[in-house]
Amino acid sequence: MSTLDDATNVEINILEILENNGKATPDEISEVVGVPTEKVREIIGELERNGVIRKYKASIDWSKLDGYVYAIIEVKVALEREKGYDHIAERISRFPEVVSVRLISGDHDLSLTVRGKSMKDVAFFVADKIATLPQVVGTSTHFVLKTYKEDGVYMGEEPKDSRLKITF
Known about the structure:
The protein is of the alpha+beta class.
């Protein structure tokens, strides 16, 4: 295996650790990947500068708090001359209600994840802000009823140990 392959594997290992635990320290990561702490810091810094690591974030179960609903909005677009999907996706991504924008295959072109205070707020957002864009020719809204897994984290209750205790 070449040095480049080893370096790439170390980077991937570091990224997987950070993806699962954004609070992992360089010392903790160093122990797992077998690379000196200073080298881990250097690799993380380079990954941040190159835009590979975009952001550190907490995984929050918003369903435990009242006040937010999520919807998946499928959007069909008619592309403008000399402007592709990137142009409309970038425009839509500027709305604060939009959590994510993805180019997808199938009957629609874009998939948006949108967060609002109520179903009514989301419906008005789609009607007033998304459907009125000149490139948008149709939308389909799906409200999220329950989230089971988000960003690799299971959002249900942790299973309780139902085994009987053994005593002697």
